[in-house]
Amino acid sequence: MPPEPALGGPAVSAAFAPSRAILALPDGFFDEVEPARFPEHVLRFRNQRWAERVGLGALTDAEWTDAFARMQPLPGSLPQPLALRYHGHQFRAYNPDLGDGRGFLLAQLQDPVDGRLLDLGTKGSGTTPYSRGGDGRLTLKGGVRELLATEMLEALGVYTSKTFSLHETGEALWRGDEPSPTRSSVLVRLGHSHIRLGSFQRHAHQGRPDRVRALAEHVIEHYHPTLASASDPLRALYGEIARRTVTLCGQWMVAGFVHGVLNTDNMSILGLTIDYGPYGWVDNFDRGWTPNTTDAQGRRYRFGQQSQTDLQSLLGLLLALDALQPGLRNKLLQSLGMVGHRLLAHGQRASEPRCCQLDQHRSRRVVRPVGRFGEAHKVLASEHLWQIGEAIGLIDYKSVFADGRDHPIDRATGGPQRVEVKAMLR
Length: 426
Prior knowledge:
With 426 residues, this protein is an alpha+beta fold. The chain has 13 helices and 13 strands.
């Protein structure tokens, strides 16, 4: 079935800058796929703030639904959705059967504010060659949970993908972990990249160093262009990915966030929080707590273990890059050693007495991201959180929360958005 005709007309503003950067990669990195056709398209959330920033704010609700529920191509961007190929370590066991299983890369565009490349990716948009028997759908509950998590983490200053759009789609889904039938949805994420550590692992596992190199060069060109002039670009790339991973882990630990599924296929090469599944926030300080019921016995992805899991994932990336040039492994090990002690320090500091002071604030700190931080501002700006963030050396909470202004890392204009959950679930 050919893709539906692309959107056109004046609704796409002059600020909209489409891209097809990923199509420059050679064969072997993605598959063209068809989006699902849903019986209903009820708009439940529209991220107008980010839509305005990227030149899509003038779309009518009907045009929005055409683009982000019917998946009609955006003008000048990708002509067909692409399911990305990758592998990954799941619960420390290598899985070669992964890839985009219920989502795809819908479009690419450039941020008109800072010029960075952005991806629009989906969740719940239908089956792909990597669905592994799944239905390719997303529950409405799952969509709302991701929306709340992305808004909360953005408000806390943690680097995260954005929930760009959420539609209810009129299907009855059966799930083993919640009352069924349950309502369906399709979600669109906005993020700086959907390339993962597992993207490199796939091609290394298949004995294709040419593809590993092509992907590394693509990442340097489009996401880290300053590294192209480094004396050893591959080592510089690895060091930058490691640094960003360390930074993100520190942000999670300070925020009390537990990702829940830290497989290498869920870890971004940009240190970006992606792929929200059974995430959670610690209600009381507990290094052993995990929100993932499938991880209840091993607790591999528990709160206090996230730093060690990240370190193991970076080792997996190191091995994927190893074959690209003689002597590279030792150089990458040196780079890993430079950040490894910081990752392990995150987990160690999580057991220090001053971190346990979070207990008295934990239930108050996890608040809805409404208004100008409100009570969250008072709690997050407390002195012990400043001390923890500055001790880790990753987050300057004084500058972030002292006057309630936007986070300097990655925020559109305006404060946290009001999320009306009751309206979505009527």
